[in-house]
Specification:
- The chain is α+β, with helices and mostly antiparallel strands.
- It is built from eleven helices and five strands.
- Strands 1-2-3-5-4 form a five-stranded mixed beta barrel.
Amino acid sequence: MFAYIRGTLEEKGTDFVVIDVQGVGYKIFAPATTIQKLGEIGNAVKVHTYLQVREDDMSLYGFSSKDELRLFELLIGVSGIGAKSANTILANISPSKLALAVITNDVKELTKLPGIGAKSAQRMILELKDKLKTEDALLQADMETTQMITSDNNLQEAISALQVLGYPAKDAAKAVTSVDTTGLNVEEIIKQSLKYFAN
């Protein structure tokens, strides 16, 4: 219903902000990282939003980027993770680090997140990996790109991580191969690739 809200920052709480849009104040729940990025009261701001509708509640959730919103939507699709838990996760880990933890089965990294135990971490890995498209990114790429990807394990992992974040295999391959990967580790490649989608 609301793709984003642009207005004046009127109030900041620990887990929410109020944005005034032509005299209407929208209370928007947000991760601490998003709240920090919005800056001072009175700033003109824009947040990407998700409207959660339940029988007894309608709540808006806001994010500083489309990537954070995309990840939030993926997280609330995991059994046992609600909107508040997803917000807490996003406040404590970057999308690139989370995707990397999922594709490398790094339960230890995920259990560092508040409210995530070993079982929840394993479920998160299993369900988010299921989001990977069955299509093969290499089949979608041209011959030169295919050779580049198959010869570099980091590129393969970065493509898988982007798929965990919901990007189609073909787009993930394009994004990763647009990055100068010299001296970059997998997480840095993912971060640079995410900028490709922001353009």
